[in-house]
Amino acid sequence: MRAAHTQSLIGSVRSLNLAERAPVMDAVGPARVAEIDGATPLLWLPMELHMRLSDALRDTVGAERNRRIWRSTMDASYDRPILHGFVSAAVDLFGVTPASLFRQTSRIYSHLTQGLGDLAFEATGSTSGRVILRGFPASDYRFICYVEGLAGCLESTISVTRAIGEVTPTDVDDTRGDVAYVVRWEARTSARERRRSA
User: Fold this and answer.
1) Which position has the higher pLDDT, 142 or 161?
2) Statement: the pTM of the whole predicted model exceeds 0.90
3) Count of domains forming the chain
């Protein structure tokens, strides 16, 4: 995993209250936290280290909060120079929509990860699609933790474009390390207008 993404995650952990933060940091250990903090953002950190942090977070906060924390973690990653260019390019080429960023899914994923399978986007409509992860090494890592974290990251992709929407994991195959996510969104103004007219 790129150090920048793991650094965003540890930033999210540091924002937790002490009762939640302490067990996560203790599970990782001070030497490994220092390794994360001291890494140049473009360097690759061992996935074992990234997942130790991820698993400890999930064990501490539970599945639903894990997903929400991953959403804010990805928000922070989108603001880092490592991904800011992808966001700018997508906006320049396609406008500010979730579809414009989802079209970059494969490139963004391969820029942040290595050896963790392939991620692709298939549009199913103008405001919907499927994001498919194939070939994650599920026998090496806790796949459910990764599935939840990636769902949060995909939610961030919708919100960074100022849209609202939902991400629903489907077709989870723990053996093959495959999962599909149904993604749907709408512009915030459309949602507001609907509420006003109701």
Assistant:
1) 142
2) no
3) 1
